UniProtKB/TrEMBL annotation:
Gene Ontology molecular function: NAD binding; NADP binding; oxidoreductase activity
Protein's UniProt name: 3-hydroxyisobutyrate dehydrogenase
Residues annotated as domain 3-hydroxyisobutyrate dehydrogenase-like NAD-binding: 200-325
Native organism: Capronia coronata CBS 617.96
Membrane as UniProt keyword: yes
Keywords: Membrane, Transmembrane, Transmembrane helix
Keyword Protease in annotation: no
6-phosphogluconate dehydrogenase NADP-binding domain sequence ranges: 19-169
Gene3D superfamilies the record matches: N-(1-d-carboxylethyl)-l-norvaline Dehydrogenase, domain 2 (1.10.1040.10), NAD(P)-binding Rossmann-like Domain (3.40.50.720)
Positions of transmembrane segments: 20-37, 391-413
Amino acid sequence: MAAATSSSDPNSKSNSLPQVGFIGLGAMGFAMSTHLVKTGFPVRGYDIYGPTLDRWQSTCNDIPGSRATIAKSPADAVQDVAVVCLMVANHHHVHSALFDEKNGAVHSLPKDCTVIVHATIPLTQPLAVRSRLTDEFKRPDVKLIDVPVSGGVARSINGTLTIMASSDDPKNLEQPDAKVVLDNLTTKGKTLFIIPGTLGAGQSAKALNQVMAGIHIPSASEIMGLAAVNGLDTKKFYDFLVAKDSAGKQRPGWSWMFENRGPRILSTSPPLASATAIINKDVGIIQDEEARLGVELPLLNKASDVLKEVMKTHAAADDSCVVQWYLGFDSDRSNLVVERGGKPTVAAEQQDALIKKVATAHAIVHLISAYETIKFAKALDLMHADQRKQWYNMIAGAAGGSAIFSAVIPLAFEDADGVDAAFKKFARERFTGDLDNTISLINHAKEQNYHPILLEAAVEYLKSFLS
């Protein structure tokens, strides 16, 4: 094990921080846990994959004043800790890490410790974990907090994640040891959202964000591919959309996912920051709720179709590879987005106007993703005034955010004629003159055997708003 070190000053901040057991050191867990180590927390890390654990130990050893140690099992990771963080892939892994017959953490959990589940899991699973802790393992003393996160690896590294926290006892969220951990992951608590309700409420809030994220990840690839087949300088197109307008506002085609994924889409060898399997899993959770609640989210389902196709061959690859699926894996144009960077084939005098048309097309996708998000919020009964304000603020500043979402959702909340009326008014004001141009873009792409699946579906929605 790595040697733990600490300040000799008993009044130092680092000595007052609680011992943390961190289970799950994938891309997000690695970044979150090493941020805690850099902040001064004594962290005991565990991952089932040995090479990852070795890399984590090496990274922590290079952190000045590191108080990190490695564990041999989940049970070993939680000995003598005050807080346990679980950042594993899915709910099956949550149950395995906690309840495995031989090495499960439950066998070593200290009395009255706090277990924080950061994984995105089905909405019913936090209560299922609580039931097993209390009824099966007779550990009602263990405090359980449901805390999914949003913001990607970059914001994990910086401790600026958006976090959605809920529990079966509100006091658990104010418990000092848990609170100091969460505050240090969320811009000193500024992006920590306490979600009213019991366990699972945090997952409900995350699911709303993931409706947007689940559409925006494949749409970022789709729109970059569309720009490429139209002969645009893809780097110039990306730079246009991420640059703010003259009034200092994000352009209508901007989304957090587009800005975040764009550099990886423009790279021939992008780093593995978020595997396709992760967003596919999250979308699957939403679809299960979609069926349970009887709500229809057609654009999200189209996005799911795309992700499932990519999953057949590239489940473990970074999800920026979706663009290559659109262009054809292993085809002679699979890297067309990269090749078009700085090398447009469209005439210079046409390029700026065409960039704006493609950007508007992306904004249409964002309009429909915002509409499906508010539909899902209604199905989850999250439309009371205090609830909707909270989830709007949360998503607007998280990975699901887009310029269109920030513009249209407040109008939908305020319109006396209802959500549908608000979206129709917004669509007529913003997109009435853009429908023909967007249809022409789609038809031109299809002539080149490029199918902008999400844009085509979004346009059908738009037609209904404009009719």
